[in-house]
Amino acid sequence: MIKFDNVTKRYETGQDALARVSLEIGRGELVFLTGHSGAGKSTLLKLLTAIEKPTRGQIIVGGQNLGRLSRGQVPYFRRNIGIVFQNHQLLFDRSVFDNVALPLQVAGYAPRDVARRVRAALDKVGLLSKERQNPIALSGGEQQRVGIARAVVNKPSLLVADEPTGNLDPELSAEVMGLFRQFNAVGVTVLVASHDLELIRRMQQRVLALQAGQLIYDGVPAHEPQPA
Ligand code: ADP
Ligand code: ADP
């Protein structure tokens, strides 16, 4: 599903945000990306979603070589990727329903299909009863779940999240992680970037760790019993 071959990203400012990173993520995997602030997590996700271009190396996502994508092809490529942001980026001038509907409307779905899919997505994140509310009236955890519904409403085969629990307390974070596990269970490939190593350890999944732009770890961390 995802292949990075010797990828380096150097921003204009000169520093290598990623240095010779090679990795592969198979279809249907659930993988966490970790590392300290500045390690290169966001950069890796931006390369993966064709927001940024690599300075060197090759990136293949869903069989597409991103280096060969034309500017016009990028929006079509992105339609197959659901993206969840830390600050959820919801629009407070419209309802929960309309926030989730947005990607479908942009893609030109018929209103009846939009309604059906939006309700299915809201149901999956447990927010069907709040469809008419303005997201500003929701809690932080609920807002993040609306962001996740919006990311999956188009049924993407790849779901990518950048620090999705950054603003949430541990309980809500676990809930959000549970949702990612749920989507993964129905076949979605999921990549979650988070610096919360404690939370990640508890998930018992494959972890990729970056440090100063280099991939320093790839495996399933040993389980450590949590204090009661
Ligand atoms: P530091 O000592 O500054 O914490 P490390 O080299 O230990 O730096 O780790 C850098 C990052 O890589 C950590 O934030 C952690 O997320 C990740 N990491 C390192 N080793 C492992 C490991 N064995 N399992 C999971 N993640 C790891
Ligand atoms: P993380 O998501 O792990 O915090 P980032 O990918 O945001 O790491 O950043 C990796 C490195 O690249 C950092 O040193 C950061 O300052 C630098 N960086 C990130 N984005 C830019 C940019 N647009 N221009 C210049 N440097 C950047």
Proportion of residues in helical segments: 25-40%
Amino- and carboxy-terminal Cα gap? 38 Å
Instruction: Give the total of domains.
Output: 2
Q: Which band does the percent of strand residues land in?
A: 25-35%
CA radius of gyration: 18 Å
Please outline the major beta sheet: 6 strands, mixed
Give the low-confidence spans. Answer: none
Order of helices and strands: EEEHEEHEHHHEHEHEE
Task: Tell me what you see in this structure.
This protein is α/β, with parallel strands linked by helices and 228 residues long. The chain folds into two domains: 1-80 and 156-165 and 189-228, P-loop containing nucleotide triphosphate hydrolases (Rossmann fold, 3-Layer(aba) Sandwich); 87-155, no CATH class. 32% of the residues lie in helices and 25% in strands. It has seven helices and ten strands. The strands form two sheets. The protein has a six-stranded mixed sheet, sandwiched between helices. A four-stranded antiparallel sheet has the order 2-1-4-5, covered by helices on one side. Helix 3 (96-106) crosses helix 4 (111-124). The N and C termini lie far apart (38 Å). The model has no long low-confidence stretch (mean pLDDT 93). Residues 11, 13, 15, 17, 35, 37-43 line the site of one adenosine-5'-diphosphate.
Give the tags:
228 residues, alpha/beta, Rossmann fold, six-stranded mixed sheet, four-stranded antiparallel sheet, 7 helices, 25% strand, globular, binds adenosine-5'-diphosphate
